[in-house]
Amino acid sequence: MRVETVMKSEATGICGADGAATIARLRAALVRRDRILRDLQESEAQYRAMFDMAGEAMFLIDAHSLQIIDANRAAEALYGYSRTELLTLRNVDLSAEPESTAHAVDDRLPLVLVRRHRKKDGTVFPVEIAGSYFRCRGRDCHIAMVRDITERVRLEDRREDVERIIRHELRSPIASLMHLYMLLDRTSSPEEQRELIASAQETTQRMLDVVTLHQELYEIETGAYRAALEPVDLAATVEDVTAELRGRAALAEVRFEVVCEGMPSAPSGFFVAGHKALCRMAVANLMRNALDASPRGGVVTVRLGHTPAGPELAIHNALPVPAEIRERFFEKYVTSGKAGGTGLGAYTAKLIADAIGRGIAMRTADDAGTLITIRFKG
Predict the structure, then answer these.
(1) Cβ pair 316, 371 in contact under 8 A
(2) Which domain, by its residues, includes 233?
(3) 70-81 confidence digits (pLDDT tens)
Protein backbone atom coordinates (compact mmCIF):
# COMPACT_ATOMS: atom_id res chain seq x y z
CA MET A 1 0.00 0.00 0.00
CA ARG A 2 2.81 2.42 0.87
CA VAL A 3 4.60 1.70 -2.43
CA GLU A 4 1.40 2.31 -4.39
CA THR A 5 0.91 5.66 -2.63
CA VAL A 6 4.42 6.69 -3.50
CA MET A 7 3.89 5.61 -7.09
CA LYS A 8 0.68 7.67 -7.36
CA SER A 9 2.21 10.79 -5.83
CA GLU A 10 5.26 10.55 -8.03
CA ALA A 11 3.28 9.80 -11.17
CA THR A 12 1.52 13.16 -10.97
CA GLY A 13 4.75 14.84 -11.99
CA ILE A 14 5.36 12.80 -15.12
CA CYS A 15 3.96 15.45 -17.43
CA GLY A 16 6.04 18.18 -15.85
CA ALA A 17 9.61 19.25 -16.51
CA ASP A 18 10.97 16.57 -14.19
CA GLY A 19 8.98 13.77 -15.82
CA ALA A 20 12.04 11.73 -16.76
CA ALA A 21 13.44 11.96 -13.24
CA THR A 22 10.10 10.98 -11.79
CA ILE A 23 9.91 7.92 -14.02
CA ALA A 24 13.41 6.94 -12.92
CA ARG A 25 12.42 7.26 -9.29
CA LEU A 26 9.30 5.20 -9.98
CA ARG A 27 11.35 2.46 -11.60
CA ALA A 28 13.73 2.46 -8.61
CA ALA A 29 10.77 2.18 -6.25
CA LEU A 30 9.45 -0.79 -8.23
CA VAL A 31 12.87 -2.43 -8.11
CA ARG A 32 13.02 -1.87 -4.35
CA ARG A 33 9.55 -3.31 -3.97
CA ASP A 34 10.44 -6.40 -6.00
CA ARG A 35 13.61 -6.89 -3.95
CA ILE A 36 11.69 -6.58 -0.69
CA LEU A 37 9.06 -9.08 -1.88
CA ARG A 38 11.78 -11.46 -3.03
CA ASP A 39 13.61 -11.17 0.29
CA LEU A 40 10.37 -11.80 2.15
CA GLN A 41 9.68 -14.86 0.03
CA GLU A 42 13.19 -16.18 0.61
CA SER A 43 12.88 -15.49 4.33
CA GLU A 44 9.53 -17.28 4.42
CA ALA A 45 11.03 -20.25 2.56
CA GLN A 46 13.99 -20.40 4.96
CA TYR A 47 11.63 -20.18 7.95
CA ARG A 48 9.44 -22.96 6.55
CA ALA A 49 12.45 -25.18 5.82
CA MET A 50 13.92 -24.71 9.30
CA PHE A 51 10.49 -25.09 10.92
CA ASP A 52 9.76 -28.34 9.08
CA MET A 53 13.27 -29.74 9.54
CA ALA A 54 13.06 -29.45 13.32
CA GLY A 55 13.09 -32.89 14.91
CA GLU A 56 10.65 -31.87 17.64
CA ALA A 57 7.03 -30.84 17.20
CA MET A 58 6.77 -27.06 16.90
CA PHE A 59 3.77 -24.75 17.00
CA LEU A 60 3.30 -21.02 16.40
CA ILE A 61 0.39 -19.93 18.60
CA ASP A 62 -1.55 -16.71 19.10
CA ALA A 63 -0.81 -15.88 22.74
CA HIS A 64 -4.29 -14.36 23.31
CA SER A 65 -6.70 -16.60 21.42
CA LEU A 66 -4.43 -19.69 21.76
CA GLN A 67 -5.19 -20.44 18.11
CA ILE A 68 -2.54 -22.49 16.33
CA ILE A 69 -1.12 -20.33 13.55
CA ASP A 70 1.42 -22.80 12.23
CA ALA A 71 2.69 -26.32 12.88
CA ASN A 72 5.56 -28.33 11.46
CA ARG A 73 5.72 -31.85 10.06
CA ALA A 74 6.98 -33.30 13.33
CA ALA A 75 3.81 -31.98 14.99
CA GLU A 76 1.69 -33.72 12.36
CA ALA A 77 3.55 -36.99 12.96
CA LEU A 78 3.38 -36.74 16.75
CA TYR A 79 -0.29 -35.88 17.12
CA GLY A 80 -1.72 -37.65 14.08
CA TYR A 81 -3.41 -34.54 12.65
CA SER A 82 -2.72 -33.02 9.26
CA ARG A 83 -1.38 -29.45 9.20
CA THR A 84 -4.75 -28.26 7.89
CA GLU A 85 -6.50 -29.89 10.84
CA LEU A 86 -4.00 -28.46 13.34
CA LEU A 87 -4.60 -24.94 12.07
CA THR A 88 -8.27 -25.26 13.05
CA LEU A 89 -7.36 -26.07 16.67
CA ARG A 90 -6.15 -24.18 19.71
CA ASN A 91 -3.24 -25.44 21.76
CA VAL A 92 -5.61 -26.37 24.62
CA ASP A 93 -7.35 -28.78 22.22
CA LEU A 94 -4.15 -30.86 22.20
CA SER A 95 -3.83 -30.89 25.97
CA ALA A 96 -5.29 -33.40 28.42
CA GLU A 97 -4.88 -30.60 31.00
CA PRO A 98 -6.34 -27.61 29.13
CA GLU A 99 -6.63 -25.28 32.12
CA SER A 100 -2.99 -25.80 33.07
CA THR A 101 -1.97 -25.26 29.45
CA ALA A 102 -3.85 -21.95 29.23
CA HIS A 103 -2.35 -20.77 32.53
CA ALA A 104 1.16 -21.64 31.31
CA VAL A 105 0.71 -19.36 28.27
CA ASP A 106 -0.86 -16.60 30.39
CA ASP A 107 2.10 -16.77 32.77
CA ARG A 108 4.54 -16.93 29.81
CA LEU A 109 6.33 -19.94 31.26
CA PRO A 110 9.52 -20.70 29.29
CA LEU A 111 9.54 -24.39 30.27
CA VAL A 112 6.91 -26.93 31.29
CA LEU A 113 8.63 -30.10 32.48
CA VAL A 114 5.68 -32.46 32.31
CA ARG A 115 2.30 -31.99 30.70
CA ARG A 116 -0.14 -34.62 29.43
CA HIS A 117 -1.23 -34.16 25.81
CA ARG A 118 -3.74 -36.05 23.70
CA LYS A 119 -3.29 -37.36 20.17
CA LYS A 120 -5.98 -37.46 17.49
CA ASP A 121 -6.69 -41.13 18.32
CA GLY A 122 -7.24 -40.26 21.99
CA THR A 123 -3.89 -41.52 23.29
CA VAL A 124 -2.71 -39.48 26.28
CA PHE A 125 1.05 -39.13 26.58
CA PRO A 126 3.57 -37.04 28.58
CA VAL A 127 5.40 -34.13 26.96
CA GLU A 128 7.98 -31.49 27.85
CA ILE A 129 7.39 -28.02 26.41
CA ALA A 130 9.85 -25.18 25.81
CA GLY A 131 8.27 -21.85 24.94
CA SER A 132 9.25 -18.41 23.66
CA TYR A 133 7.09 -15.29 23.42
CA PHE A 134 7.40 -12.42 20.90
CA ARG A 135 5.55 -10.08 18.52
CA CYS A 136 4.80 -11.54 15.10
CA ARG A 137 2.76 -9.94 12.30
CA GLY A 138 1.37 -7.37 14.66
CA ARG A 139 0.23 -9.72 17.42
CA ASP A 140 1.61 -11.46 20.50
CA CYS A 141 2.72 -14.94 19.63
CA HIS A 142 4.05 -17.97 21.40
CA ILE A 143 6.26 -20.59 19.80
CA ALA A 144 6.23 -23.96 21.54
CA MET A 145 8.60 -26.87 21.04
CA VAL A 146 6.98 -30.09 22.27
CA ARG A 147 8.99 -33.20 23.08
CA ASP A 148 7.42 -36.61 23.65
CA ILE A 149 8.92 -37.92 26.92
CA THR A 150 6.99 -41.20 27.09
CA GLU A 151 10.16 -43.31 27.12
CA ARG A 152 11.89 -41.09 29.67
CA VAL A 153 8.92 -41.26 32.02
CA ARG A 154 8.74 -45.02 31.57
CA LEU A 155 12.40 -45.42 32.51
CA GLU A 156 11.99 -43.11 35.50
CA ASP A 157 8.99 -45.15 36.64
CA ARG A 158 10.96 -48.38 36.26
CA ARG A 159 13.83 -46.93 38.32
CA GLU A 160 11.40 -45.96 41.07
CA ASP A 161 9.91 -49.48 40.93
CA VAL A 162 13.37 -50.99 41.37
CA GLU A 163 14.07 -48.75 44.34
CA ARG A 164 10.80 -49.90 45.93
CA ILE A 165 11.81 -53.52 45.33
CA ILE A 166 15.21 -52.91 46.95
CA ARG A 167 13.55 -51.30 49.98
CA HIS A 168 11.14 -54.23 50.15
CA GLU A 169 13.98 -56.77 49.98
CA LEU A 170 15.95 -55.01 52.73
CA ARG A 171 13.11 -55.06 55.25
CA SER A 172 13.49 -58.71 56.22
CA PRO A 173 17.29 -58.81 56.69
CA ILE A 174 17.22 -55.51 58.60
CA ALA A 175 14.62 -56.95 60.98
CA SER A 176 16.72 -60.13 61.32
CA LEU A 177 19.84 -58.08 62.01
CA MET A 178 18.10 -56.09 64.75
CA HIS A 179 16.88 -59.35 66.30
CA LEU A 180 20.40 -60.82 66.22
CA TYR A 181 21.86 -57.77 67.95
CA MET A 182 19.21 -58.01 70.67
CA LEU A 183 20.11 -61.66 71.24
CA LEU A 184 23.81 -60.80 71.22
CA ASP A 185 23.22 -58.21 73.92
CA ARG A 186 21.45 -60.76 76.10
CA THR A 187 23.89 -63.64 75.91
CA SER A 188 27.21 -64.04 77.71
CA SER A 189 28.17 -67.38 76.19
CA PRO A 190 31.22 -66.98 73.91
CA GLU A 191 30.03 -69.82 71.69
CA GLU A 192 26.56 -68.31 71.26
CA GLN A 193 28.11 -64.89 70.63
CA ARG A 194 30.29 -66.34 67.86
CA GLU A 195 27.25 -68.00 66.25
CA LEU A 196 25.23 -64.78 66.46
CA ILE A 197 28.07 -62.71 65.02
CA ALA A 198 28.45 -65.20 62.15
CA SER A 199 24.70 -64.97 61.49
CA ALA A 200 24.89 -61.15 61.57
CA GLN A 201 27.74 -61.22 59.05
CA GLU A 202 25.74 -63.50 56.73
CA THR A 203 22.70 -61.23 57.04
CA THR A 204 24.80 -58.16 56.29
CA GLN A 205 26.22 -59.89 53.21
CA ARG A 206 22.68 -60.64 52.03
CA MET A 207 21.84 -56.95 52.39
CA LEU A 208 24.89 -56.02 50.32
CA ASP A 209 23.86 -58.59 47.69
CA VAL A 210 20.42 -56.98 47.47
CA VAL A 211 21.89 -53.50 47.00
CA THR A 212 24.28 -54.69 44.28
CA LEU A 213 21.32 -56.14 42.35
CA HIS A 214 19.97 -52.65 41.65
CA GLN A 215 21.38 -52.49 38.11
CA GLU A 216 20.30 -56.03 37.20
CA LEU A 217 16.76 -55.38 38.42
CA TYR A 218 16.63 -52.09 36.51
CA GLU A 219 17.73 -53.84 33.32
CA ILE A 220 15.12 -56.56 33.88
CA GLU A 221 12.41 -53.95 34.44
CA THR A 222 13.34 -52.05 31.28
CA GLY A 223 13.80 -55.14 29.12
CA ALA A 224 17.52 -54.54 28.66
CA TYR A 225 18.74 -57.50 30.76
CA ARG A 226 20.87 -60.13 29.06
CA ALA A 227 21.18 -63.09 31.37
CA ALA A 228 24.64 -64.57 31.95
CA LEU A 229 23.56 -67.84 33.53
CA GLU A 230 25.69 -69.97 35.80
CA PRO A 231 25.11 -73.19 37.76
CA VAL A 232 23.16 -72.45 40.94
CA ASP A 233 22.57 -75.00 43.69
CA LEU A 234 18.88 -74.44 44.28
CA ALA A 235 18.80 -76.97 47.14
CA ALA A 236 21.43 -74.93 48.98
CA THR A 237 19.46 -71.75 48.25
CA VAL A 238 16.29 -73.27 49.74
CA GLU A 239 18.23 -74.47 52.78
CA ASP A 240 19.71 -70.97 53.27
CA VAL A 241 16.30 -69.26 53.02
CA THR A 242 14.77 -71.84 55.36
CA ALA A 243 17.45 -71.03 57.95
CA GLU A 244 16.79 -67.31 57.54
CA LEU A 245 13.06 -67.79 58.09
CA ARG A 246 13.38 -70.31 60.93
CA GLY A 247 12.68 -67.79 63.69
CA ARG A 248 9.76 -66.27 61.80
CA ALA A 249 8.34 -69.72 61.13
CA ALA A 250 8.65 -70.71 64.79
CA LEU A 251 6.68 -67.63 65.88
CA ALA A 252 3.97 -68.47 63.33
CA GLU A 253 4.08 -72.19 64.29
CA VAL A 254 4.62 -73.11 60.65
CA ARG A 255 6.98 -75.83 59.45
CA PHE A 256 8.98 -75.99 56.21
CA GLU A 257 9.25 -79.32 54.43
CA VAL A 258 11.78 -79.61 51.58
CA VAL A 259 11.56 -82.51 49.12
CA CYS A 260 14.01 -83.22 46.27
CA GLU A 261 12.92 -85.58 43.49
CA GLY A 262 14.59 -87.02 40.42
CA MET A 263 17.91 -85.27 40.92
CA PRO A 264 20.54 -86.19 38.32
CA SER A 265 23.33 -84.86 40.56
CA ALA A 266 24.46 -85.85 44.03
CA PRO A 267 21.79 -85.71 46.78
CA SER A 268 23.51 -82.67 48.28
CA GLY A 269 22.75 -80.46 45.26
CA PHE A 270 20.02 -79.55 42.80
CA PHE A 271 21.58 -77.42 40.09
CA VAL A 272 19.84 -75.13 37.65
CA ALA A 273 21.07 -72.49 35.22
CA GLY A 274 20.51 -69.12 36.86
CA HIS A 275 21.89 -66.16 38.76
CA LYS A 276 22.68 -66.96 42.37
CA ALA A 277 21.56 -63.71 44.00
CA LEU A 278 18.48 -63.34 41.79
CA CYS A 279 17.46 -66.96 42.39
CA ARG A 280 17.74 -66.41 46.11
CA MET A 281 15.64 -63.25 45.92
CA ALA A 282 12.87 -65.03 44.02
CA VAL A 283 12.87 -68.10 46.28
CA ALA A 284 12.99 -66.00 49.46
CA ASN A 285 10.01 -63.90 48.36
CA LEU A 286 7.88 -66.94 47.54
CA MET A 287 8.82 -68.88 50.68
CA ARG A 288 8.22 -65.80 52.83
CA ASN A 289 4.83 -65.21 51.22
CA ALA A 290 3.85 -68.86 51.66
CA LEU A 291 4.86 -68.70 55.32
CA ASP A 292 2.85 -65.53 55.93
CA ALA A 293 -0.19 -67.03 54.16
CA SER A 294 -0.14 -70.26 56.18
CA PRO A 295 -2.39 -71.00 59.17
CA ARG A 296 -0.87 -71.80 62.56
CA GLY A 297 0.33 -75.37 62.59
CA GLY A 298 0.56 -75.37 58.82
CA VAL A 299 3.24 -76.76 56.54
CA VAL A 300 4.96 -75.06 53.62
CA THR A 301 6.22 -77.65 51.17
CA VAL A 302 9.12 -76.81 48.88
CA ARG A 303 9.54 -79.37 46.14
CA LEU A 304 12.49 -79.58 43.74
CA GLY A 305 12.16 -81.81 40.74
CA HIS A 306 12.76 -82.37 37.05
CA THR A 307 10.18 -82.50 34.28
CA PRO A 308 10.72 -83.24 30.57
CA ALA A 309 10.83 -79.46 30.02
CA GLY A 310 13.45 -78.83 32.72
CA PRO A 311 13.95 -78.30 36.46
CA GLU A 312 11.23 -76.77 38.61
CA LEU A 313 10.75 -75.45 42.12
CA ALA A 314 7.23 -75.66 43.55
CA ILE A 315 6.07 -74.07 46.82
CA HIS A 316 2.77 -75.12 48.38
CA ASN A 317 0.81 -73.76 51.32
CA ALA A 318 -2.60 -74.84 52.60
CA LEU A 319 -4.61 -71.63 52.12
CA PRO A 320 -6.02 -70.37 48.81
CA VAL A 321 -5.26 -66.97 47.30
CA PRO A 322 -8.20 -64.59 47.96
CA ALA A 323 -10.58 -64.65 45.00
CA GLU A 324 -10.42 -60.89 44.44
CA ILE A 325 -6.71 -60.94 43.56
CA ARG A 326 -6.29 -64.30 41.82
CA GLU A 327 -6.35 -62.86 38.30
CA ARG A 328 -3.85 -60.16 39.28
CA PHE A 329 -1.68 -62.20 41.65
CA PHE A 330 1.65 -61.42 39.97
CA GLU A 331 0.86 -57.79 39.24
CA LYS A 332 2.71 -54.97 40.95
CA TYR A 333 1.37 -53.76 44.34
CA VAL A 334 -1.39 -56.40 44.51
CA THR A 335 -1.94 -57.56 48.09
CA SER A 336 -4.84 -58.61 50.28
CA GLY A 337 -5.23 -58.82 54.04
CA LYS A 338 -1.50 -58.79 54.85
CA ALA A 339 -0.49 -56.15 57.38
CA GLY A 340 2.36 -54.11 55.96
CA GLY A 341 2.18 -55.96 52.64
CA THR A 342 3.61 -54.13 49.63
CA GLY A 343 2.43 -56.43 46.86
CA LEU A 344 5.98 -56.68 45.51
CA GLY A 345 7.05 -60.20 46.56
CA ALA A 346 5.19 -62.22 43.91
CA TYR A 347 5.78 -59.49 41.32
CA THR A 348 9.55 -59.60 41.93
CA ALA A 349 9.60 -63.40 41.74
CA LYS A 350 7.80 -63.31 38.38
CA LEU A 351 10.13 -60.59 37.11
CA ILE A 352 13.14 -62.77 37.93
CA ALA A 353 11.60 -66.04 36.72
CA ASP A 354 10.77 -64.52 33.35
CA ALA A 355 14.27 -63.03 33.03
CA ILE A 356 16.43 -66.03 33.96
CA GLY A 357 14.07 -68.99 33.79
CA ARG A 358 11.11 -70.32 31.86
CA GLY A 359 8.47 -68.40 33.75
CA ILE A 360 6.25 -68.85 36.79
CA ALA A 361 2.72 -70.15 37.40
CA MET A 362 0.20 -70.16 40.23
CA ARG A 363 -2.63 -72.60 40.91
CA THR A 364 -5.02 -72.10 43.79
CA ALA A 365 -8.27 -73.62 44.98
CA ASP A 366 -10.30 -73.43 48.16
CA ASP A 367 -9.85 -77.15 48.85
CA ALA A 368 -6.26 -77.53 47.62
CA GLY A 369 -4.39 -74.45 48.82
CA THR A 370 -1.89 -72.61 46.65
CA LEU A 371 0.94 -73.97 44.51
CA ILE A 372 3.47 -71.62 42.87
CA THR A 373 5.95 -73.12 40.41
CA ILE A 374 9.08 -71.53 39.01
CA ARG A 375 10.41 -73.20 35.87
CA PHE A 376 14.17 -72.96 35.51
CA LYS A 377 16.54 -73.69 32.67
CA GLY A 378 18.66 -76.81 33.03
Answers:
(1) yes
(2) 227-378
(3) 999 999 999 999
